[in-house]
Write a structure and sequence with these properties.
By secondary structure, the chain is an alpha/beta fold. It contains 9 helices and 48 strands.
Length: about 600
């Protein structure tokens, strides 16, 4: 059995009541001095009531059902002769039903205006209206467009639990006191373009099913969007937040656009969104941005004080205790945060923590060497597999690689698979532009005592220098040799491989040409004086003879190995060598210690902390 309808708290009309189907009947409040509401008042009484109204009169029509002609007949006697616009005193329309369009455009409400629980089935037009007292629309339902463009709210405003089923327009509206939209539901677009909130703006727990536009809006005090839900995008482009100390936490299924916005004081931003755009956003005080799921575009943002962008590991916790629901982002790849661009940013005050920088564009960032990287910030890597190019295997050293290097290498005519092509709008940066970027990031890693990471960016810097077209051919040749021999003193395996090859070649050459056939014999010659006396001997040694016969014997191998090992540590073996062997040993003593030193230096660079 259904619960019988509850009558309103005011004396109501009761027209059309039926004990069986509708025991309450019409809920319209009695017109003063009568027992019926305005909609069911007799014609003569209706005319007499309207004749008694004047601009600035207070009216009470709670629960009344208005047709468009009925509403117009009510507003006509309230129009100011000087402006032809309605001017009302205290206006009570709680639980009223407006069956068609409700036109309150340019109206002035000199005292409180109550539209709580009202239903607007057609357009609700409050454009350029002025509310000098409290404007209360709590739990109201707007089934079509609700337009408050250029309206002025001079006192408190309440739209809590209101439902806007059509477009809600508050463009250029001015809220001089608190604006309360807590738990309101906007089933279509909500536009607050160029609106001014001179006191608290409360949108906590509000639900925006369509686009939410706050572009060029001004928030002079708190901007409360805690636990709000944006099923589309939240647009704050060119908005001004003068005193807001926190924005969020809220969840957005689309983009949060803060491009061109300005934050005047210390602020914390807490968003769970697919994308955050902060292009040319100005931060005039310390800022902390904590995000989940988002891809951040920070290009050309102006950072005047320390600013931290960090990934939040767990869902945001609301002030009342529960976690922020993230069902709208269930299809997102993961809660990690990715940075798309830092171009044009002065990174001297920037801190990045636990972010994915694999697709970040760094070229054009200012003071990149002062960037602070905290936690697990990840970069892209070189393609790991071996590829074949012109029947030659091509393998890239595993290291951290910038997205711009991926784009440059992918654009080369003989690019191997695995390098990521540039997306539209990424621009082009070549080796000349990327070398200083790698150098600056290397210094940032060194300042953070992350030597292995710094080594990767040193490798990238040297690679860009080697491929740059603004260096002499001789310098490119030296860099190529440095790369081939030891990977810029960062690849110990490469240097050790060359050292092993050099030692093997030295041993083979010594066995073949360097070791004498036999050990030269020493002879002593002298003359004995006839009358006795001192004898003087001259000690000579036969010249080493070039080897003949079987040269690759175990004995000769031991001799060659001994000579080679001494050459590695820059020592002379003291062996008797042929002329060719002497030059072979000299070359070995010059090259092999250098290769050993490169290998030791590479090991040190990889394990240093």
């Amino acid at each position: 059995m259904s619960t019988p309808p509850t009558p309103p708290s005011w004396p109501h009309c009761g027209h059309g009541a039926d004990p069986t189907t509708d025991p309450v009947g019409c809920r319209g409040v009695h017109v003063v001095g009568h027992t019926a509401c305005l909609a069911h008042l007799a014609s003569a009484d209706h005319a007499a009531y309207l004749a008694g109204l004047a601009p600035g009169s207070s009216i009470d029509h709670r629960g009344t059902t208005f047709t468009e002609p009925l509403l117009n007949s009510l507003l006509n006697p309230l129009r100011d002769p000087a402006t032809s616009n309605p001017r009302l005193g205290k206006a009570q329309f709680e639980a009223a039903i407006f069956e068609r369009d409700a036109g309150f455009g340019s109206a002035t409400f000199e005292r409180d205006a109550g539209f709580g629980s009202a239903t607007f089935e057609g357009m609700a037009w409050f454009g350029s209206a002025t509310f000098e007292g409290i404007a209360w629309f709590g739990s109201a339902t707007f089934k079509s467009t609700a337009w408050f463009g250029s309206a002025t709210f001079k006192s408190g405003t309440g739209f809590g639990l209101a439902t806007f089923e059509g477009m809600a327009g508050f463009g250029s509206a001015t809220f001089e006191d608190m604006a309360g939209f807590g738990s309101a539901t906007f089933n279509s677009s909500a536009w607050f373009e160029a609106a001014t909130f001179k006191s608290d703006a409360g949108f906590g727990s509000a639900t925006f099913e369509g686009m939410a536009g706050f572009g060029s809006a001004t928030f002079e005090d708190m901007a409360g969007f805690g636990s709000a839900t944006f099923n589309s995008s939240a647009w704050f482009e060119a908005a001004t937040f003068e005193e807001a100390d926190q924005l969020g936490p809220f969840v957005c299924a689309g983009r949060v656009v803060l491009s061109g916005a300005r934050f005047g004081g210390p602020v914390t931003l807490l968003f769970a969104a697919r994308r955050l755009e902060c292009r040319r956003t100005r931060w005039s005080s310390t800022t902390e941005i904590r995000l989940r799921y988002a891809t951040v575009d920070f290009a050309h943002a102006v950072v005047e004080y320390p600013l931290t962008i960090a990934a939040e590991a767990d869902p945001f916790v609301l002030t009342r205790g529960p976690q922020l629901a993230e069902d709208l982002l269930s299809g997102a790849p993961g809660p990690g945060v990715r940075v798309a661009s830092l171009r044009g940013v002065d990174a001297a005050h920037l801190v990045l923590a636990d972010l994915d920088l694999s697709r970040c564009l760094f070229a054009g960032t200012v003071h990149l060497d002062q960037l602070r990287l905290e936690g697990a910030c990840t970069f892209d890597t070189a393609p790991p597999a071996v590829h074949w190019r012109r029947r030659r295997p091509v393998r890239f050293t595993a290291r951290r690689v910038l997205a711009e290097e991926h784009h440059w290498r992918a654009a080369q005519p003989r690019a191997v698979p695995g390098w990521n092509a540039a997306v539209l709008g990424a621009g082009r940066a070549g080796p000349v532009q990327l070398a200083p970027v790698y150098r600056a990031l290397r210094k940032a890693f060194e300042d953070g005592k992350h030597e292995p990471g710094a080594a990767d960016f040193y490798y990238g810097e040297m690679e860009m220098r080697r491929h740059a077209d603004d260096i002499p051919r001789s310098e490119r040749g030296l860099l190529t040799a440095y790369w081939a021999l030891s990977g810029y003193s960062l690849r110990a395996s490469r240097a050790l491989a060359w050292l092993g090859a050099a030692m093997f070649l030295t041993i083979v050459l010594l066995m073949a040409f360097g070791l004498a056939q036999n050990t030269p014999q020493q002879t002593a010659t002298g003359t004995i004086p006839a009358g006795g006396g001192t004898v003087t001997f001259e000690i000579g040694k036969d010249a080493p003879h070039n080897p003949t016969g079987n040269r690759f014997t175990g004995k000769r191998f031991d001799q060659a190995l001994n000579i080679t090992l001494n050459s590695v540590v820059f020592r002379s073996s003291g062996q008797d060598l042929t002329t060719s062997g002497t030059y072979i040993e000299m070359t070995s003593r010059l090259t092999e210690p250098v290769l050993l030193g490169l290998a030791v230096l590479a090991i040190r660079n990889r394990i240093k902390r």
